[in-house]
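Recap quiz, item 2
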Amino acid sequence: QQPVQSPQAVILREGEDAVINCSSSKALYSVHWYRQKHGEAPVFLMILLKGGEQKGHDKISASFNEKKQQSSLYLTASQLSYSGTYFCGTEWGNEKLTFGTGTRLTIIP
Amino acid sequence: NAGVTQTPKFQVLKTGQSMTLQCAQDMNHEYMSWYRQDPGMGLRLIHYSVGAGITDQGEVPNGYNVSRSTTEDFPLRLLSAAPSQTSVYFCASSYSGGHAEKLFFGSGTQLSVL
C-alpha cells in the first residue's frame, strides 16, 4: 500500500518555506525522500531511519515520527532549483521501497 | 562511471508484441529493481532482486518477467504488450537493498503500446 503524500501540489514564491508530509498505514523501518525534475530520473535527497531522527541537507531537512508513522520534508527559503516533484518512499523491513504519488512543487520568482 | 544504464530510451510497440528493457549497473550493487511511473500514480514497484539468481515481485508484477543471471544486469521482459503497459520505466539499484541504502536510478525508458 502506497504512503499518502500531502499536499499534492504547492506553488511558492522564491524565499518562502514549504512542508511536504508523508503518512503510512504500516509501521516504518525507514523513509526515503527523492526529487524528480521533469523528464529526468528521481534523485536521492535523504533517508531517515526509525528512531525519530531529523536530518538536514542544505536548506532541506526532514523528520521522522515513528509513532505516528509519518515523515515531513521541510524546504526553507526555497530556491528556483527546488522545483520538481518530491516523492517519499517507505520501507517496512521487507526490502521493498514503496513510493507515494508525489508532491509537485513549483517555485516562482 | 556510468552508474545505471537503461536501453532503449524510447520504444513503441504494437499490442501483443514482446520486448526486453535492458538495465545494467557498474557499481557492483546487489539490489536492483524496476518501477513504472504513470501520471498521478507515482513510482510503482514491478519486480526486484536482492542478488544474482534471486528475484521477487513488487506491487504490479503482472505482465512482466525478470531474471538476474549476473550482478550487473536486470532485464525486464514484456511477453505480450498491452496498452495498459504504456508508461515510463525506471531501473534502480542500491548496494544491498537494506532500508538504509539509497537508490540510484537509470534515466528511464518511455514505452508506448498502441
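Chain B touches chain A through 26 residues (CB under 8 Å).
The mean pLDDT of chain B is 94.
End of item.
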